[in-house]
Write a structure and sequence with these properties.
The complex is a heterotrimer of chains A (339), B (363) and C (271).
Chain A: H1 31-53, H2 60-85, H3 94-110, H4 115-140, H5 144-162, E1 166-167, H6 173-179, E2 181-182, E3 185-186, H7 189-205, H8 207-217, H9 219-224, H10 229-254, E4 257-258, H11 267-276, H12 288-308, H13 313-337
Helix pairs in contact in A: 1-12, 2-7, 2-10, 2-11, 2-12, 3-4, 3-5, 3-10, 4-5, 4-10, 6-10, 7-8, 7-12, 8-10, 11-12, 11-13, 12-13
Chain B: H1 6-26, E1 48-53, H2 60-76, E2 79-84, H3 89-102, E3 106-109, H4 117-127, E4 131-134, E5 142-146, H5 148-167, E6 173-178, H6 184-200, E7 209-213, H7 218-231, E8 238-242, H8 245-257, E9 264-267, E10 283-288, H9 294-306, E11 322-324, E12 327-330, H10 331-336, H11 340-349, H12 356-360
Parallel strand pairs in B: 1-2, 1-3, 3-4, 4-5, 5-11, 6-7, 6-8, 8-9, 9-10
Antiparallel strand pairs in B: 10-12
Chain C: E1 11-22, E2 25-36, E3 40-45, H1 51-58, E4 66-71, E5 74-76, H2 81-86, E6 89-92, H3 104-108, H4 119-123, H5 129-142, H6 159-172, E7 177-181, H7 189-204, E8 208-212, H8 216-222, E9 225-230, E10 233-239, H9 245-253, H10 263-270
Parallel strand pairs in C: 3-8, 3-9, 6-7, 7-8
Antiparallel strand pairs in C: 1-2, 1-4, 4-5, 9-10
Helix pairs in contact in C: 5-6, 6-7, 8-9
The structure holds adenosine-5'-triphosphate and magnesium ion.
Subcellular location (chain B): Cell envelope
Protein name (chain B): Substrate-binding domain-containing protein
Pfam family, one (chain B): Peripla_BP_4
Chain lengths: 339, 363, 271
């Protein structure tokens, strides 16, 4: 359309000079490997710095502290990552999703039903919550950030009507599971690892994962390939909801008593970990194993601060600063690769 | 859906996240619509009290404050008008207009959105109506609140006494589960508790006291506390104090996760997790405030106003018009205290001038 | 020159009297095209003549108000892009073709990923990456599409490589008809040559191609016939052998009268 009708040769300025490798991305290591290395680097730097100040940092106690802190954040981060990678921007109602699932789990147990009923109910509750978000986003053609902000507020309000606080039965199997260990690490750490590995494999090696990445990376292209955008988007919300539901189950196992607002403190850390992992908010990109590193790094911060003996408010300052840095890096990555 | 520029919108949205999560953490804005009390304050000479409950949905003590106040007004043969602030600035402001229009003789209120209080204060000042405010101070209003400084000291003293009795004051670690955002209240409750432990057990070295951010909730506390235990791997006898029960229980749960719960005792604040079937076995006690009983203190001020000699206005937390006495209880004692609805009933049938402290804390 | 003597079954695709309006704007007043098997059909016209709209209708992205489409002898009615894909029509969009964050092979197989041969993995929806990689390498080599590796993200590739990849995809998937809307518009001279060469190879493989271009020189190089559009109508179809670039331009601008009567022709007469 830029060309006049009767030009003899193609005068369109070559927009891609050289036509060869122009970006460092396509040379050497894949982007995700570089992300992995840089986050692992920062993490190791933090560990080394802490160890220099306090050599006893390298202990099983620290390992327990960090792996425990990673567990629920990690599962939630996978849920958030599914949304972000598939182009759903962000799910701001994740804290509600977590608590609503935990509440459902605990309610089932408090009614004397067995654990094998409670766990599926918790996961299904998360899926239902995801489906609600997905249906509004997909059929209302609305911005997911606005929708989940609204459902997040609405969901909290409804929960406040139904319960003030919820307690898991102290002697239930699930509660005992939450207090136990496997291979020297907290029990709840292992479901997190499993979710990350399975999720990572699913994104990398299944048709479902491929298409989700495509929808997030370039929805028009995916649609032109005959991929049903609605079904994929709805699916991503429901799948992410199931993962959030599992987080809720694990949360109820380690938290003896929780209120409707108890999920709020996960919000920023989860988003920060997702963005720091190079899972771009523009969608279509992300590696869950890098996410695992990112979560590990975030989870190490409070422990390091305790070892440094810094004033408590530093934990919040650090995490806030990290989030800003992560968003900045994401913006920089986008700008650099825009063209 | 494909038409917005994702990256930018997402980052824009992120800016909102911080604010949103703060709001989520705080409180929501549902609640029943305010229903004006039935009795209209005609100028029949009867003393009329206007009472605005907070209307925060997850805090039943707020509604119960209204019930207690109603009972106390009935006891005195006064007229009583109750409204709910619905946990909202707008409703709180509107309610002030309604009270003024109804010609009440004084107002008692809890407003969880203090940003609206200066406006409300101006309205009442113009109308010449005295106000009692609960928990949140406002210049010119009688301040009624729990004595947080005493609450911290009482809890710490009780915990210190236990440590003295059980461990002969050999305490390896005193953990302070801070809620920095609560400001002065955190200093009173958490700081005074630690100081009180030091008074009972003066030989605990300074470096055995450690603080961490628990933000007044179990989830944050449980996320940050494990590091504290890891950083003090040799500590055996451990004490925990904090801003509230949630913060303290978060630390106790972290101890359990790290296998450090062999010899640990926590003393909470506010009594939120000290009753019920699932009390943390290491939460040995807490401090109850009987928030629903605030009106009992407020009505002592009201009595003087009604008698025609209003007391001097004391409007700060440091110098309160009436301080609600906190009540440090062990887990066993807490179990013996009736539940909140029962307490409201008993308070209504108690003789004039009785506080809940008198009913449940004089053992 | 006229195709009216042939029956519809001889054609890969036959569209007749397609109309489409956007509110008051008549984007297509009456568009028809008979596409033979294994030919490259140029589609030309001034800006706004309705070329893109016509192509979108043939690729299922836009639903026509009226008219008939017959593909391989059977009438079709496309409601969405996947309908056209199923009927064997592949469309290459200039900007929307590829997912930047995915590799060449992933892009080539997008929406049609091969599942693993292992029945268990297959059940788990696991794809056969090795097979897809091998096959896409074969096809790309055969078509002379030069890319460093099918495994790197397409983001780093040149415009020509990307365009070739998107076109090659059509062949890999066994499409009978490929629609290209200005495939060389953003490309340099050498890259354009690559793409034109590839179009020639597609024809050699028996694929029919519809090609929109504003570049007459390129068009006469690669096309067998051209269809000219003016103000929402297809007004003439010519064998490229019978016409010069200047002749095509004459048809486009109206300097040469149309084969069919058009409103503006009569307007010209009145004038
Ligand atoms: N979605 C739409 N909404 C409204 N009008 C449209 C739409 N799409 C196309 N049109 C109008 O239909 C007419 C034909 O447009 P079309 O894009 O098909 O032309 P074209 O021949 O491809 O032009 P170009 O050479 O500039 O690409 C134009 O007047 C255009 O403005
Ligand atoms: Mg066009």
């Amino acid at each position: 359309m830029t060309t006049s009708l009767i030009t003899p040769a193609d005068p369109a300025a070559p927009r891609s000079p050289g036509g060869k490798t122009r970006r460092p991305d396509s040379r050497g290591l894949p982007v995700s490997a570089r992300d992995a290395l840089s986050i692992a680097g920062v993490w190791v730097a933090l560990i080394v710095a802490t160890t220099i100040v306090r050599p006893d940092f390298l202990s099983t106690q620290s390992l327990l502290a960090i792996t425990f802190t990673m567990s629920i954040t990690g599962i939630l981060a996978v849920s958030q990552a599914i949304i972000v990678i598939s182009g759903g921007l962000l799910d701001l109602s994740l804290p509600v999703s977590l608590i609503v699932s935990a509440w459902a789990t605990v309610t089932v147990l408090n009614n004397g039903l067995p654990t094998w009923v409670a766990i599926p109910v918790g996961i299904l509750t998360g899926m239902a919550w995801g489906a609600l978000n997905g249906i509004i986003v997909v059929f209302g053609k609305l911005n997911p950030i606005i929708v989940t902000l609204a459902t997040g507020f609405g969901g909290l309000a409804v929960m406040l009507i139904f319960f003030k606080s919820a307690q898991i039965p102290a002697q239930s199997d699930l509660r005992l599971y939450g207090l136990g260990r496997f291979l020297g690490l907290p029990n709840i750490f292992w479901p997190m690892v499993m979710v990350i590995v399975l999720g990572g494999l699913a994104f990398a090696y299944t048709r479902w994962g491929r298409r989700l990445i495509a929808v997030g990376g370039n929805a028009s292209a995916a649609k032109a390939r005959g991929i049903n955008l609605r079904r994929m988007r709805l699916g991503s919300f429901i799948g992410a909801g199931a993962v959030a539901g599992l987080a809720g189950v694990m949360f109820s196992a380690v938290t003896p008593s929780f209120t409707p607002a108890a999920g709020a403190s996960f919000q920023l850390i989860v988003i920060g970990a997702v963005i720091l992992a190079g899972i771009s908010l523009s969608g279509g990109k992300g590696n869950l194993l890098v996410l695992l590193l990112s979560i590990g790094f975030f989870a190490t911060i409070p422990t390091s601060i305790a070892f440094f003996g810094l004033a408590p408010a530093w934990a919040l300052v650090f995490q806030g600063a990290l989030l800003i840095i992560a968003v900045g890096i994401d913006g920089y990555r986008l700008k650099r690769t825009a063209r | 859906m494909t038409h917005f520029t994702r990256g930018r919108l997402a980052r824009l949205g992120l800016v909102g996240v911080a604010a949103a999560s703060l709001l989520l953490a705080g409180c929501s804005t549902v609640g029943s619509t305010s229903d004006a009390g039935s009795s209209d304050a005609a100028d029949d000479g009867t003393f009329t009290v206007g009472f605005a409950v907070g209307g925060q949905p997850d805090a039943d003590w707020q509604d119960l404050q209204g019930d207690v106040a109603k009972g106390l007004a009935d006891q005195r043969g006064w007229d009583f008008v109750e409204l709910s602030n619905d946990n909202s600035e707008a409703t709180a402001t509107k309610n002030a207009d309604i009270f003024i229009q109804k010609g009440v003789d004084m107002v008692m209120m809890f407003n969880g959105q203090p940003s609206a209080n200066p406006v409300i204060a101006k309205k009442y000042a113009d109308a010449g109506i005295p106000v009692v405010t609960f928990d949140i101070a406002q210049p010119g209003w009688y301040f009624v609140g729990v004595d947080n400084a005493a609450a911290g000291t009482d809890g710490g003293t009780a915990l210190g006494e236990l440590a003295k009795e059980k461990w002969d004051c050999k305490v390896d670690l005193v953990i302070e589960a801070e809620g920095t955002a609560a400001g002065q209240i955190n200093t009173w409750r958490t700081g005074n508790a630690a100081d009180a432990i030091g008074t009972v057990c003066p030989d605990i070295p300074e470096e055995n006291y450690v603080k961490y951010e628990a933000d007044g909730n179990l989830t944050t506390s449980l996320a940050n506390a494990p590091g504290v235990f890891a950083a003090h791997p040799d500590a055996k006898n451990i004490l925990v104090v904090g801003l509230n029960d949630q913060a303290v229980v978060g630390a106790l749960q972290a101890a359990t996760q790290l296998g450090r719960d062999g010899s640990i005792m926590g003393w909470g604040q506010d009594g939120g997790l000290i009753t019920g079937p699932n009390v943390d076995p290491n939460l040995v006690g807490s401090v109850m405030y009987f928030l629903e009983g605030y009106p009992a203190s407020a009505f002592e001020i009201a009595d003087e106003i009604a008698a025609g000699n209003p007391p001097a206005v004391k409007d700060t937390g440091d110098d309160a018009a009436a301080s609600v006495k906190p009540c440090a209880v062990t887990a066993a004692e807490a179990a013996a205290i009736p539940d909140i609805n029962e307490r409201v009933k008993e308070l209504a049938s108690a003789p004039k001038g009785t506080s809940e402290y008198d009913l449940y804390c004089k053992s | 020159m006229s195709d009216t003597t042939s029956t519809a079954t001889d054609f890969a695709l036959s569209a007749s009297h397609i109309t489409r309006r956007y509110g008051a704007v008549v984007a297509l007043a009456d568009a028809s095209m008979q596409l033979r098997r294994g030919e490259v059909m140029g589609l030309v016209g001034d800006n706004g003549a309705g070329k893109s709209t016509f192509l979108k209708i043939l690729s299922g992205a836009v639903i026509p108000d009226g008219g008939d489409i017959v593909v391989g002898g059977s009438p079709v009615s496309f409601r969405r892009p996947s309908d056209a894909l199923e009927a064997g029509i592949e469309t290459v969009y200039q900007d929307l073709a590829l997912v930047d964050t995915m590799s060449a092979v992933q892009n080539v197989y997008l929406g049609r990923e091969e599942l693993s041969k292992n029945p268990f993995l297959r059940l788990l929806n696991v794809v056969n990456d090795g097979g897809m990689r091998k096959r896409s390498r074969e096809v790309l080599t055969e078509l002379g599409v030069g890319i460093q590796s099918v495994n790197v993200s397409v983001k780093g590739m040149s415009g020509g490589q990307r365009q070739c990849l998107a076109i090659a995809r059509a062949l890999l998937w066994g499409r009978q008809i490929v629609i290209l809307d200005e495939p060389t518009a953003a490309l340099g001279v050498r890259e354009s040559a690559q793409v034109l060469e590839l179009i020639g190879r597609l024809r050699d493989h028996g694929v029919s191609v519809i090609l929109v271009s504003h570049n007459m020189q390129q068009l006469v190089q690669v096309a067998d016939r051209v269809t000219v559009m003016r103000l929402g109508r297809t007004i003439a179809t010519r064998d490229v052998a019978d016409i010069t670039p200047e002749g095509i331009v004459g048809l486009i601008t109206g300097a040469i009268p149309a084969d069919v009567s058009t409103p503006e022709d009569s307007a010209t007469i009145v004038h």
